[in-house]
Amino acid sequence: MIDLKNVKKIYHTGGEELIALNDVSLQIKKGEFTSIMGPSGSGKSTMMNILGLLDRFDEGSYILNGQNVSSLTDNESAHVRNKEIGFVFQSFNLMPRMSILENVELPMVYAKVSAKERHERAMIALEKVGLANRVKHKPNEISGGQKQRVAIARAIVNQPAVLMADEPTGNLDSKTTLEIMKIFQDLNADGTTVVMVTHEPDVAQYTKRIVSFKDGRLMDDQLVENPIIL
Ligand code: ADP
Ligand code: MG
C-alpha cells in the first residue's frame, strides 16, 4: 500500500537548512494499523504530511497503492489525495459554518458525487462513528470527541485506501481517546489501512505496529505483541 524509499526532506528557513527526514524508508501493507512515534520535533508530522501528499520531499521515492507519487504536480497530488487518502488532524479542521452532515459531504462535493449519493454515503459514515443523530448540529455545538468522530467520518467517506491521522487524540481526554481508538480499530478490522502519529506510548499499544523516529531518522520498527483490543 505504502512504499517509501530513502526519503529526505529539507526545510529552508532564513538561509538555514534543516533536515527533517533523513534517509527514511517505510513499507506498509494493506490492512495494517501502524503508529508513528517519537519526541516532539523528530519528524512525525513531516512524515505524515509526505505520506498524505500534503507536502513534497527532496530525495527518494514514494509508491502509494501501486502508483508512483514521487513527483506529482499540486493538481495531481490533490486528485490522488482525494481518491486514496483520508486525513484526520489533531485540531479536527471542521468547517465551522457547515453542519455535521455538510462537513462529511464535502469531500464528495470535490469528487463530484451526486447529491443523493452524497447524503447516503455521509449517513453511512456518520453511523459508523456513532453520530447519525447529530447531523444538523454545527461543530461548535458538539464535544471534542464528537468533532474528531465527524472528522473521521469525513476522512472515510470517499472510501480511501489509507486512513491517516496526525495526533488524532492529542486534544482529547483519556476516556475520549479510547473511544477514538476503538473507531480506528473497528475501521481497521473492516479492512481499512490506518497510519497514525502519536507521541503517547500508551495510545500506540492500541495499534499493531510501532515505527519510531528520532531526529528525522526511522530508528525502530516493531510489531505490538498483544495489541489491546477495545
Ligand atoms: P514532530 O511532528 O515529530 O513534532 P515535525 O515533523 O513537525 O516533528 O518537525 C520536524 C522538524 O522540522 C522540527 O525541527 C521542526 O522545527 C521542523 N519543521 C517542521 N515544519 C517546518 C516548516 N514548515 N519549516 C521549517 N521547519 C519545519
Ligand atoms: Mg507533529
TrEMBL record:
Q: What are the BP-aspect GO terms?
A: amino acid transport
Q: Where is the ABC transporter domain?
A: 2-229
The family database entries (Gene3D superfamilies) matched by this protein are listed as:
P-loop containing nucleotide triphosphate hydrolases
> Which GO-annotated molecular functions does the record name?
ATP binding; ATP hydrolysis activity; transmembrane transporter activity
Q: Which family does it belong to?
A: Belongs to the ABC transporter superfamily.
Q: What SUPFAM superfamilies does this protein map onto?
A: P-loop containing nucleoside triphosphate hydrolases
The record's listing under SMART domains reads:
AAA (SM00382)
State any GO CC term: membrane protein complex
- Which UniProt keywords are present, listed alphabetically? Amino-acid transport, ATP-binding, Nucleotide-binding, Transport
Lineage of source species: Bacteria, Bacillati, Bacillota, Bacilli, Lactobacillales
Name of the protein this chain belongs to: Putative ABC transport system ATP-binding protein
